[in-house]
Glycosyl hydrolase family 2, sugar binding domain protein (Roseburia inulinivorans DSM 16841), 640 residues
Amino acid sequence: MRRIQNLMEQWLFIGPDNRQEQVNLPHTWNAKDGQDGGNDYYRGTCHYEKTFEKPEFDPEAEEVYLEFLGVNASSDVTVNGKELAHHDGGYSTFRINITEVLEDRNKLEVTVDNSVNGKVYPQKADFTFYGGIYRDVRFLIVSKEHFDLDYLGSNGIKITPEVKENEANVHIETFTNTEEAQVNVQIKDQDGKVVAEGNGCDVNLNIQNPIRWHGRKNPYLYTAVATLTVNGEVKDEITNRFGIRTFSVDPKKGFFLNGEHYPLHGVSRHQDFKALGNAISTKNHDEDMDMICELGANTIRLAHYQHDQYFYDLCDERGMVVWAEIPYISEHMPGGRENTISQMRELIVQNYNHPSIVVWGVSNEITISTKDKKDMLDNHHVLNDLCHKMDPTRLTTLACYAMCGPFNRSAHITDLVGWNLYLGWYVPGFFLNDLFLRFFHLVFPNRPIGYSEYGAEGMPNLHSRRPRRGDHTEEYQAKYHEYMIKCFERHPFMWSTYVWNMFDFAADARNQGGEPGMNHKGLVTFDRKTKKDSFFLYKAYWSDEPFVHLCGSRRSDRSEDTTTIKVYTNQPVVSLYNNGELIEQKSGNHIFTFQLPMEKENKIEAVAGSVKDAMVLHHTEKENPDYKLKKEAKKSENWV
């Protein structure tokens, strides 16, 4: 039976200028310089070395695989001086059978390269391309007869449920490295009870009255257990969870899950953390998912690359509908066509069994700086056809950017389309969002459209009584999102909407406005410690857990004699108190505003049913100078 042995500790890292240090994995060499601005973080080649004793295994009956879950971006692997593998693509799993080169004492060398080139994506985008071995590395010790481990990082099992009325046919294909094997497959429910069973590498199993995976409402998962035997002896076993569901998109009514109208409203997510880069832990993943669930989102766009399998598992468990994509972004590189295909093949093969995933994303903002449009369009057709061939059960999509017009040919290749539009942030005019959506739907009434990105910068240390576009204040960000969430309510035909972004993230090329090296469009700060007011706006609209939130608590010093108090809540009635006295009680939906005559000190409390929130404001002659905006913070509209 297979065994796992982690290889996470005591690596020698040889970095720029041959600087050497002992590190543990996960690790990136850009954790600091990739987050400070200047577009000068190190992009080049570094080396990792590790010595290890031969793992315990039976060389007559077993084999040893070396598995990498994520190395960015290109890597060469050598064991005991023998070059064993080269891999291009920084976000997917790859494995190497190292059985034949193992000695009693071994040296593992991994050369990692995130340098600028014209063949491996991503190369041009608004986020940092952290270099390093930033996910787990481990041994897989398996019987010589085992489920296949050599095909694009697959675990050797492909599960395709098909639902018809009150029954499900589950087509399960398993792939082995031997023709002598016998395979038994069981399907178990969440209580561990066997509900279907069959024999063979290609079986169809029937489940009567299946419980459907139904997003946040009921993310029910079954487990497939495949057992490989040779001459009656068990040699290998794999388990894989899956969900039974149907989905569809109506260009006039939006997204449907299991035949039920299920509007998709959610967020995009990058995988990096402050001071860690993308070398993050399962605890970090859990923390991200907990906050996304608290927000009330029901869908996540996992941008702009393949994320950790652990996070896809969390999406399955928590009922998040997922847009999964490859980092084919910003600029088509004729020399990178092969890499787009290989990254898409790995994405689909490694993630096929996740019920959370409903769409494969082909590209993002690819028309920004593409010169060879003919080659780019052809590449898109190849990718779109590849997705449908490898996975006929899911839809395809892509994300266009603002200057890619509704008639652009690239916007009409995939099954669905999303637009990255920041109308009201990079350009003036909130109303332009309504105009764009109405126009597109009028001209292309049978083309499903969504917003793949929308947002505005907001920094918790920047504030204004009169927020304006480009000022980076928490107040303007909230004002922007208040408009957008109501705009989407006016256009129920949209198949999905995704806030850009759930969390602030590093973009080292950013040098203007706010804080260099950072994109502050997140609803939560980069360190995950501060939920901005906009976070609570969406929570008011999307979540069921009773809460009330007083906005503007970080603008604690105010010079106006009468100030506006804004409250976000999912409760129908809010009472506002100041220094223990009731100021006013209001009924409404989600957003409440009150006019409060300022006293010298104001202990304010908002009460909505059984929940309350409090803050303290001071009436001052002048605002706190920390609230004043820096001149460079007004230049954000020039960012791309």
About this structure: DSSP finds seven helices and 42 strands in the chain. Residues 275 and 553 are 27 Å apart (CA to CA). Residues 373-390 form the longest helix (18 residues). Confidence is low (pLDDT under 50) at residues 625-640.
